[in-house]
Amino acid sequence: MRVVVPWPPAGVTDVLTRALVQAMSESTGQQFVVENRPGAGGTLGLAPVAKSAPDGYTLVASDVPSHAISASLYARLPYDVLNDFEPIAMIAGSPMVLATNPALGVRNLKEFILVARAKSPPMSYGSSGNGSITHLAIERLKRDAGMDLVHVPYKGTVPAITSVLSGDTALAFGTIPGVMPHAKAGKLVPLGSSFGKRFSQIQEVPAIAETIPGYDMGFYTALFAPAKTPPEVIQKVFLEVTKALAQPKVKEIFANSAAEPGTMTPTELKQYLAAEVKAWGDVVRSVGLKID
User: Which of 52, 86, 256, 271 is deepest in the core (most CB within 10 A)?
Assistant: First the structure.
């Protein structure tokens, strides 16, 4: 069985997927091969899977936000996000952490919003690139909080967080490992985590939803099959994923990656993806982004 990861090796999606399929391979005796096909926001890896035979032998593990964003972001997407894939299972989730520089003098998100609303010209924020989740997540926050910020794109999350550390930008989203060590050293102020509730590994950081009700997003990784894959095949793979996620070794790898196992059924994942396509589509259109 081939599982395509449309992101580079050693990234979070890759690490989590490899831990999962290793456990599934040991449980089923079936050989799983992980194939990295990065590029174009994940679309280069997703496109061939959409055209693969719907027999359960070719799957794709991708993060849900990027998959949902692509439906509105790309003018010529070679597949339909909702209709060319069968959702199988949510593998894992990890929140992003919103951070600012302590020199700004704010202690929480509410204070940051008040400062941002009063600034003229507006402050800037960093992201991992135009159309990325870290870009559009702050655009979503801007809209919901009624504040203005200027976007500065970087080539990755690390340089975006570095820009906040240096004071070049006022705000950025980063991963838990990329933000919390700096926060504990007093070099960053974590304003909030992006899940709808506080994350178990960083209980001291409030959820953004505590200030902006309904705000809920993060690095969610899910497993998909090509459209028209038989329901019994989807269910069989889903059950194997569920068994693998319960294994202590998998839980340990996930915890070390600041992620927690997913819990959605195929039906719940399908409904969630549809809601995310709509929500991110609203954000993409409000920003006026489009990639040919």
Answer: 86
Q: pLDDT (tens digit, 9 = 90+) per residue, 110-141?
A: 999 999 999 999 999 999 988 889 999 999 99
Per the confidence metrics, is the pTM higher than 0.70?
Answer: yes
114 Cβ contact list (under 8 Å, min separation 6): none
What the block records as the tokens of 224 is 């998909």
Give dist(CA 226, CA 209) in Å, integer: 34
Taking the C-alpha atoms of residue 242 and residue 214, their distance in angstroms, rounded to an integer, is 28
**Residue 90: what are its φ and ψ, rounded to 5°?**
-80, 120
SS (H, E, C) the chain: CEEEECCCCCCHHHHHHHHHHHHHHHHHCCCCEEEECCCHHHHHHHHHHHCCCCCCCEEEEEEHHHHHHHHHHECCCCCCCCCCEEEEEEEEEECCEEEECHHHCCCCHHHHHHHHHHCCCCCEEEECCCCCHHHHHHHHHHHHHCCCCEEEECCCHHHHHHHHHHCCCCEEEECHHHHHHHHHCCCCEEEEECCCCCCHHHCCCCEHHHCCCCCCCCEEEEEEEECCCCHHHHHHHHHHHHHHHCCHHHHHHHHHCCCEECCCCHHHHHHHHHHHHHHHHHHHHHHCCCEC
**Residues 156-196 pLDDT 10s:** 899 999 999 999 999 999 999 999 999 999 999 999 999 99
Residue in 78, 80, 111, 282 with CA at minimum distance from that of residue 191:
111
Tokens of 50: 């959409």
